Amino acid sequence: MTVRPATPSDTDRIVELLKLSLGDVSTTKSAHFWRWKHLDNPFGASHVLLAEADGILVGVRAFMQWRWTDGRREYSALRAVDTATHPGYRGRGIFKKLTLQLIAERTAAGDDFIFNTPNSQSKPGYLKMGWQEVGRLPVALRINRPLALLQRKLGWAAAAWEPAPADVAKERDAFDWSLWEDWAGSPVQGWSTAYRPKYIGWRYRDCPVANYLPLGQRNSYLLVVHPKVTALGLEFRVVQAHVGPGQVGAAQAALQDLRRQFTPDYTSVAPGRNFDWGVSWIRREVGPVLTFRRLTFDQAPALTDWQYQLGDMELF
């Protein structure tokens, strides 16, 4: 078996292996999606290793580039994301071999750390390879339709209504995405993504596997909402939220107008986003489990220091 870095010309073979290994569940696998995620990322192209044996591609492992800042300096981070092993070559340690080789390479290159939010099946494997569990991320929740939520939880209601993709796309395409320029590089408290000017457009406008609803006013607020059907109903996931001084009321009113239009069952946002205050919002540890793997920076920030957006941690 040979291991080598991936090149853009490998994209079609990588997508074929992802489909063979994982199927087209969760997110649709395509060359367009792979290029958007791993080549067009404004933080830089992903670091991807491939394993080949008997003339076929048998393994892929990708670390996505990211940047975090604590308000004083930027950290070169990696996000452990896509991985696949050919069904005929499982049980040979390919995932572990590729992962450990990428760790060694990126440590030598001077990257600071790796973060990800693995599921319960993959987390034990990461912990065995040196990852540590930071904790389950808290989320602020507001129940918009409590009766519908209760009926659905008890199995008394039909599946939640989902906004038509065309309606969401219409809102997205009509939005003035240059509003993001007001917020790029704004100071933060705690650990936040170190945004790039093209980040918001890349992440939410151009994403090929999800539709996002943006709303905002220049020099006032910017919100990006992901309407997502869950087992409990239609969730309005506020994946990006920036609210200027004195603009909380305007942001709250805009979000309420959007809720009237699409009638979600509940709304979620990362805590501390300025408009999740009051008795109508509750904070619960129901987000994904955040894990950390040191490279050259060896101290994982405490869970309370991560001033994340839900879009930072969302799987895509």
Automatic annotation (TrEMBL):
InterPro entries: Acyl_CoA_acyltransferase, GNAT_dom. Residues 1-152 form the N-acetyltransferase domain. SUPFAM superfamilies: Acyl-CoA N-acyltransferases (Nat) (SSF55729). It comes from the Bacteria. This is N-acetyltransferase domain-containing protein. It comes from Neolewinella maritima.
